[in-house]
Amino acid sequence: MDHLKLTPDKLSVDEITELVTDDRCGAVSVFIGTTRDNFEGKKVLRLEYEAYEPMALKAMKSICDEARDKWPAIHSIAIYHRLGMVPCREASVVIAVSSPHRRDSLDAVSHCIETLKASVPIWKKEVYDGDEPVWKENVECTIDSTPIPTPAPDPAPPVDKSLVQINVSCEELQQRIQNFIERKREQVNISNIHDFVPNNEADNEETETCARVRTQFVRRGDSKGHLKVHKVHNEWGPQTVAPADFYPEQHNRTGLPSSIAERVVSIENYLNIGPVSKDIYRRLKDMEDKIAYLQSVSPEYAQFWKAARDRDVKQEGAMDYAFSADDIARKIEQLEKGMM
Amino acid sequence: MEIAHDVNVKLLFFAQSKELAGTKESTIRLPNKISYSKLLNIIVESYNLQAIKNNILLAKNEEVCDEDIDIEIRERDSIAVIPPISGG
């Protein structure tokens, strides 16, 4: 249980201790704050206390809650504070805490008085013999930095672990930053040298600068040089016709007299058949076949054949041709096939 | 923009601020919403508290006011001027 009181009456330690004593508790810890009779050589006549009472009681209640949070074994807490005029030697504050074992109550009572001095709105004026009275300020008072707590105040916000505090002069700090920049520059230079200058030539006289590029040929894949070569392989077209295909060579190979060879070639050209065979008899046979074919497909040009026969020295015996009905029927059949 | 309704609040002074203000309690008209610094300035100017301006806190209805949040004030609220404390 919590016993909280602000009173102008003299505090009785016995009564307050009795409030917290319990059969189950082996420890009652008591703090008594009393008034000194001197301050910095000045004689203190008395102290005058005043409080913002509703707020002070709230703050004292939150001290109790906080203590019970930290030391759950606590049984009872009593915080009594005296107000008004307090003569020297008398108690201004009494705090008593009971718990089953002494450690909890000892720690808790210490915590309570520290927090009370820091956060409970109570003020003390020291009245001196001869000097002006002074309103005191507790060193624990957190009034300038953190607000007076109703919930438990943390003394200081925890510092972010990633932040580093450096305690040096401005010049020293500048120097360190400069050193850092130079060291980084150096590292970048070295890595540039490794990148641009191959074969560990970085040790030569040019090491002071990174502004150099030494080219190096890097083979790619299965290349044989650093030049690219484009080749076009024509599968067909005028470029692919070899000169060997022309007839002068053919005459030489067939061994015909040039006059006969020329005439044979001109007939072949006229009939639109190529010189296929080296054998002259084979070529003559091809010509005859072609003429027979032309006669069969175009009988209406018979008179040209006769005229042509005069020119065609080689084919005299082959040309006098009469068509039987069977022949005509066969040709018609052939034509129909060809048209289909 | 909200229309600022003036409200009457009770001002409480303690210890040093009580002696400087020359009174324990007073009434003041305030807009229903005001920043902490504005309120502090008004009180310091009106009650002769310049000497301890940097050492006081304001508490509304027994709760210390947050300096970063605008204070909303209603009729019959009480605002306390809290100088550095010295209990114990």
TrEMBL record, chain A:
Pfam family, one: MoaE
GO cellular component, one term: molybdopterin synthase complex
Keywords tagged on the record: Coiled coil, Cytoplasm, Molybdenum cofactor biosynthesis, Transferase
Species annotation: Spodoptera litura
SUPFAM superfamilies: Molybdopterin synthase subunit MoaE
Transferase among keywords: yes
Any one GO biological process: Mo-molybdopterin cofactor biosynthetic process
Protein name, UniProt field: Molybdopterin synthase catalytic subunit
Listed EC numbers: 2.8.1.12
Oligomeric and partner information: Heterotetramer; composed of 2 small (MOCS2A) and 2 large (MOCS2B) subunits.
Automatic annotation (TrEMBL), chain B:
Modified residue annotations for Glycyl adenylate: G88
UniProt xrefs under Pfam families: ThiS (PF02597)
Entry's Gene Ontology molecular function annotations: molybdopterin synthase activity; nucleotide binding
Localization in the cell: Cytoplasm
Post-translational modification summary for this protein: C-terminal thiocarboxylation occurs in 2 steps, it is first acyl-adenylated (-COAMP) via the hesA/moeB/thiF part of MOCS3, then thiocarboxylated (-COSH) via the rhodanese domain of MOCS3.
Any one GO biological process: Mo-molybdopterin cofactor biosynthetic process
1-thioglycine modified-residue sites: G88
Cellular component GO terms held in the UniProt record: molybdopterin adenylyltransferase complex; molybdopterin synthase complex
UniProt feature coiled coil, ranges: none
Record carries keyword Acetylation: no
Keywords linked to the UniProt accession: Cytoplasm, Molybdenum cofactor biosynthesis, Nucleotide-binding, Phosphoprotein
Pathway annotation: Cofactor biosynthesis; molybdopterin biosynthesis
PANTHER family recorded: MOLYBDOPTERIN SYNTHASE SULFUR CARRIER SUBUNIT
Protein name (Swiss-Prot/TrEMBL): Molybdopterin synthase sulfur carrier subunit
